[in-house]
Design brief:
Nucleotidyltransferase, domain 5; 5-stranded mixed β-sheet; 10 strands; binds 5'-O-[(R)-(carboxyoxy)(hydroxy)phosphoryl]adenosine; binds zinc ion
Length: about 350
């Protein structure tokens, strides 16, 4: 990497987190996130409310990121922002703000693909965290994404598998809704799963060709199962909540690991990196670790704050692109369905 001293501001606004981060070379100086609590009442992200909240949060969040980094905005070398994929109204706030700031400071603007950023978050300099060597397989698992990506180099990525319907985090959150748990339900299901019997109840795994995933059938199966059981016993959920959570988790982790095994078999690549909110899950972490001795894998899990939506991952991509002088034009537009 370069011996220059480069400061980049990263801005993320693709979904319901307004985030800004300053990176100095490969090292994060600040990583500020304003999460939008408003969506909890609705049990999911409401796009219109998300874009309004971004509008309110973006100036204070960016100011705080610059302040925490202990620099002035005049020291920045470039502004990196999430161009997509994501919610259009949300993306527009970050995109417009980044363009104006870059223009005002007369410095380069760098557009970033949010999905590439989840993967390249592994290249943030962080003590105690190893960077995966190329080529590696990346599995991005969150409330909005489920992909397996073959990563040949920083910007040479190929999606080799993805969900054909819901993301894995949605499977957690929607199952949680059926069970009367709060939103997002992933952490709660994970906590309870550790207290229950994973084989108490069986749910069939979806049959999807190749490396693609499907989670919508599982959600329906869980719904029907709960409806049937609560008809026979109205206290069924209360009496069995830990076992239900453990069984759901066991099924979901089984689906993810089966596909990873197939991806390793097909590509011959045994370095596996994960990212996205679901990578906080204790079950997936244990299963990946077990894969190291069982299948000879080497696995990489970034620091938690870099796995969920954040701007540090946007800043690291900004830095990598800055080194290659890969800048954007001022007329760049947000793209809700941007591909890797
Ligand atoms: O990456 P993220 O913060 O936001 C996006 O969706 O982009 O991921 C949030 C998702 C939610 O669906 C949440 O339920 C899930 O990650 N999640 C978990 C856990 N922690 C968060 N799912 C399972 N186990 C967890 N420990
Ligand atoms: Zn994300």
């Amino acid at each position: 990497m370069s011996s220059q001293n480069i400061y980049i501001l990263g801005i993320e606004s693709s979904c319901d987190d307004t985030a800004a981060s300053v990176i100095f070379n490969g090292q994060i100086l600040s990583n500020v996130i304003a999460s939008q609590k408003i969506h909890e009442e609705y049990g999911g992200v409401v796009p219109e409310l998300a874009s309004r909240a971004h509008q309110q949060n973006i100036v204070p969040v960016v100011n705080q990121a610059i302040k925490k980094a202990n620099i002035t905005k005049e020291q920045l070398h470039a502004i990196a922002f999430t161009r997509g994929p994501g919610l259009m109204g949300s993306l527009l706030v970050g995109t417009s703000f980044a363009k104006s700031l870059a223009m005002g400071l007369n410095i380069p603007l760098i557009d970033v693909n949010h999905m590439q950023a989840h993967i390249l978050a592994h290249f943030i300099d962080e003590e105690g965290f190893n960077k995966p060597p190329f080529p590696f397989l990346a599995m991005t698992i969150s409330g909005g994404h489920t992909q397996i990506v073959k990563v040949a180099n920083y910007f040479d990525m190929e999606v080799i598998g993805e969900t054909i319907d819901d993301a894995v985090g949605e499977a957690y959150d929607k199952s949680g809704k059926v069970l009367g748990l709060g939103y997002p339900a992933g952490p709660e299901i994970d906590k309870r799963a550790q207290l229950g019997n994973p084989k108490a109840f069986q749910f069939t795994k979806p049959k999807v060709e190749g490396l693609n995933f499907s989670f919508s059938g599982l959600k329906t199966a869980i719904l029907y199962f709960i409806q049937k059981e609560t008809k026979a016993n109205p206290n069924f959920i209360e009496e069995n909540i830990n076992d239900i959570c453990a069984s759901i988790q066991y099924t979901i982790i089984g689906i993810l690991i089966d596909k990873l095994k197939l991806a390793v078999k097909q590509t011959g690549i045994k370095h596996i990196a994960i990212g996205g909110g679901v990578s906080a899950n204790s079950g997936i972490r244990q299963a990946l670790k077990a894969g190291e001795s069982k299948f000879g894998w080497t696995t990489y899990v970034p620091k938690f704050e870099f796995t969920t939506d954040n701007a540090a991952m946007i800043a690291i991509v900004g830095y990598l692109k800055y080194l290659e002088k890969d800048f954007s034009e001022q007329h760049v537009t947000a793209s809700a369905r941007l591909k890797i």
